[in-house]
C-alpha cells in the first residue's frame, strides 16, 4: 500500500495530484506549520488575458502556527472575488455547469481556519476526480511510515520542472493558444471533465 504525505494546499495544482495519482493513502496533519509564500492559501487559474492567483486572506501577517490554528480573514470580500474570478475564467468551459455546484457552496460557508477550508476543498476535488486514495488525518506525520513525503516541496517559487513529479500533458484550455501547465485542479476539471483523472495519471513524471 502506497502512502504519500502532503501539505494541505488550497485547490491544489496538477503537480500535487500527479504525486498522489497512484497513492492508496494520502496523509495530512493539522499540526503542520503554515508556510508563507506557499500554495497553502492560494491557487492559480487562467483568465482570458493572464494567469490569476486567487488568495485566501488570513489573520496575522506572519503566523508561526499550525494550519489548524491559522484563522481565515473574513473582513475582506475574498469569497465573492474568488467566485467572480472562477466564473469569468471557466463559465464557458465544457464541464463548468456540472462541477461548479459542488464547489460554490463551500464559498458560502465561513470556515474558521485554513485547515477546515482546504480539507473540504480537497475532499470534493478527490471525489470529482474519482480518486480512490483514502485521505487520512494523523497527528504527526513524522511518526508515520510513508512511501513518499512531498511536504514543503511544491510551491510557487520553484518551477515544477525542477522536481521529478509532474510533466505537462496538454489538454484543450479555454483561453490562449499556448498551453499553461500546472494550474489549479479547477482548470483540468472544468476543461476536461471525466478525462481529468486519466490526464493526471499520464502527467506523472517517470
TrEMBL record:
It comes from Algoriphagus pacificus. It comes from the Bacteria. Pfam families: WbqC. InterPro entries: WbqC. This is WbqC family protein.
